[in-house]
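hey so u asked for the seq, here:
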Amino acid sequence: MIQNADFVIIGAGIVGLTVALELRKRHKTDSIVIIEKESSVGLHASGRNSGVLHSGVYYGNDTIKAKVCSSGSKKMQEFADEHSINYRKSGKVIIATSEADLLIIDKLLVNARNNNINVERLDEYDIRKIEPYSNPYQYGLYSPDTAVIDSYSVVEKLFSILQDKKVEFKLNSSLLKVNDQKNTILTSKEEISYGYLYNCAGANADRVAKLFKRGLDYTMIPFKGIYYKLDPRKNHLVNSNIYPTPDVNLPFLGVHLTKVINGDIYVGPTAIPAFGRENYGILKGLKLSEAAGISFELLNMYLKNVENFRSLVHSETRKYIKPWFLESAQRLVPSLQSEDLVSSNKVGIRPQLVNIKTKSIEMDYIIEKTENSTHVLNSISPAFTSSFSFAEFIINCSEE
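ran it, C-alpha cells below
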C-alpha cells in the first residue's frame, strides 16, 4: 500500500519542524508527513546548536539571511514566551583586535543600519563596562538584543506541538529513491505519494536535491567545530558573549566566548575540515566512501586557493593543538590561561555548501524548486535563529 500525503518534509531539524508548523497554520486539514532518518528529532545541527539568537548584523540587506534573521529571533523569543522555554537577552560585543578589523566593524554597523538592527558602536572604555576582561582595539559593537535560548527545548516543544496537530513523523526512515514524475518517494520502510515535498535535510540537502535533478552545481563540505569549556572558577571573565570581528569573505565567525543558557561558558568553535557529514569524533561518523569525495573537493579548493582557502585550512587545522586554540581566545580575553580551558564533548558539524564550478563557498541560503518540490540548500547559521521567519519565506517561495 502507498501512503498518500498532501505534504512531505524531508528532515526533522529546526527548519523542517518550523516549515511543518507554518504549513499547518496555512493548511489546517491537509496531511503532513515528516521523514527523518534518525530515531529522534534535532539530533544533529539543531540539537547541537549553541542557542545564540543572533541579531543579523553580519548580513548585507540583499541577502535572505538579512531578511529573516532579526525577525526570526523575535519570533523565536515570542515562541519561548508562549511555551515557557528558558531564554535570556544577554547581549553580545563584537570587538576589533587590530587596525585591520576597524573597517569590518564599520561595515557591520552599516549592515545594522540598513537592516534596522539595534546595534551601538562603543569605544574601548564602554565595551569594558560590559565585558571588563575583554581586549578591544579602539572600538567595537554592542548588540543588546542578542539572546541565548535552550535550543533543544525548542526542538522538543515543536515536536510535541506538531504531533498534537496531527503531523505524522516517520522516524528511523531513510529516503532511498524518488519519482518526481509520479510524485512518490521510497523510504527504508514504505512508499509515499505526495502533493508537494520540502527538502529540509540539512547536511544531506544537496544529496536529496540531486535526486530531483536540483542542486547540481553544489556539494556539501563539512567543517568540524570543537569547543573547550571555561573552568567554572573563571566564569567571571565573561558576562555574556564576546565575539571577534569576522572575516567577511568566510562564513565562520571565529573562536568566541558564549555564556549559554545554563550559565556555562564555551570557547570555540573551530572550523576544521571534516571527512564526514556526521564526523563528530576522529573516527565517529567517518564513512570511507564519503570521505573520498570530500577529500577530493577539499584538495581542489586547497590547490586553487579560491577565497584564500589555503590560509583558512592552515589557521583552523592548527587549532587542534591547544596552544594555538588558546591564542585565538586570548585575542578576546588576554588573561585566559591554558588550564582555564577544560576539554568538552561539545562538537558540531557545519555543512557548508560549495559551488562546484567556481570552488567558492556560498554565503547565503539557497532555494531551488521543481514543479512539486522545494529544496532548502545551505541552511547554516543563523538557520536556528531565523527558523520561524525562514519557514514563512520558504513556503512563500514554493507558492510563487
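The CA atoms of residues 196 and 372 lie 5 Å apart. The mean pLDDT is 94.
lmk if thats what u needed
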